Amino acid sequence: MATRVVQHVSEELPSRYVLPEQHRHGGIPAGEAMPEPLPVVDIGRLPATDEASKLRVALESWGLFLATNHGIEVSLLDALMDGAREFFHQPLETRHKFSNLVDGTPRHKGYGCLLSQDQTIDWFDRVHLAIHPEDERDLSSWPHFFRDAMLEYAGKSKKTRDRVLRAMATLLELEEDHFVSKFTDRAITFAAVNYYPPCPAPDRVFGFRPHSDGRLITFLLADKDIGGLQVRKDGRWFNVPTIPGSLLVFVGDSLEIMSNGAFKAAVHRVVTNPVKDRISVAMFFGVDGDTVLEPAPALLDETRPARYRKMRTKEYIQGILELYGRYERMIETMKI
Ligand code: OGA
Ligand code: NI
């Protein structure tokens, strides 16, 4: 259970957060500036060809882009971030009312951590919310600080998701609805509201260790002007910029597999800030647990063999959680 509060921050780091030697990043893990700007995609202009070609560059190189003109009011995004910050600034007793523990066992919903007691954990607190299927939503357990804004954002972000995924399918010369049609009424969408307290030892902890997200795509709203989010390319770490009012869109493992590697899942991490706290809100859009993850058959022929093996989503996600504790990536085990 993540129970840190700002007062915990001192030179004496709680040992559960301190990285084992072999996973340290050596010195202060400042990222580099990107060699070329991160692509900015005007969602309202998709599928116009010039906009779609920016999308292609983003998906093939970074697995990440900034989405502007996405159709969601900036005032709503601000209200969501403000509510999230307010929640994390509540005393621990208040936050614990939304705990993810049921009879001592963590669930995938609520405030807290999913790793077991013997694993090193990252320097952030998180609230998990089940957004979809609707019968899993359990609104009464959502912190009221951001509940209404989150609900409205969840509804509006679906339209943006579909627009982006249609443009992606078109880039692969698949049917426009190839990805969108996978969002059945049992498809899984999760939100995570993340809080990174200040930490004076960014060389000994991770804000969030290197990983890629498991589902198709992630929308991330990140605190302005604080930084800390980095993306990996060719073995180097680059600082991810933000534009106020925009969304960061990440390719996840499921989409990398379905596109047979044409689109690359973004490997990213967060390093801590010694003085400022940081908030982010992630929305993970995935297919349902029984759907088999596999490269789209229309992308395969004798000259283009499958580059990933098949697996049910449920088992894939379980695998991610197991390997995460060992700082490894599940998608590496899928490559043929
Ligand atoms: C995540 C994630 C990054 C951030 O929640 O999967 O990578 O900036 N978050 O909080
Ligand atoms: Ni992530």
> What is the number of beta strands?
16
Low-confidence stretches: 1-10
| Global outline | globular
Whole-Å distance between the termini?
Answer: 37 Å
Major pleated sheet? 8 strands, mixed
Instruction: Give the structural class.
Output: alpha+beta
Strand fraction band? 15-25%
Radius of gyration: 19 Å
Helix content: 10-25%
Average pLDDT level: 89
Tell me the number of helical segments per DSSP (H or I, 4 or more residues long). Answer: 6
Q: Order of strands across the biggest sheet?
A: 1-2-12-9-14-7-6-5
List the ions, cofactors and other small molecules found in this model. Answer: N-oxalylglycine, nickel (II) ion
Give the topology string: H per helix, E per strand. Answer: EHEHHEEEEHEEEEEEHEEEEH
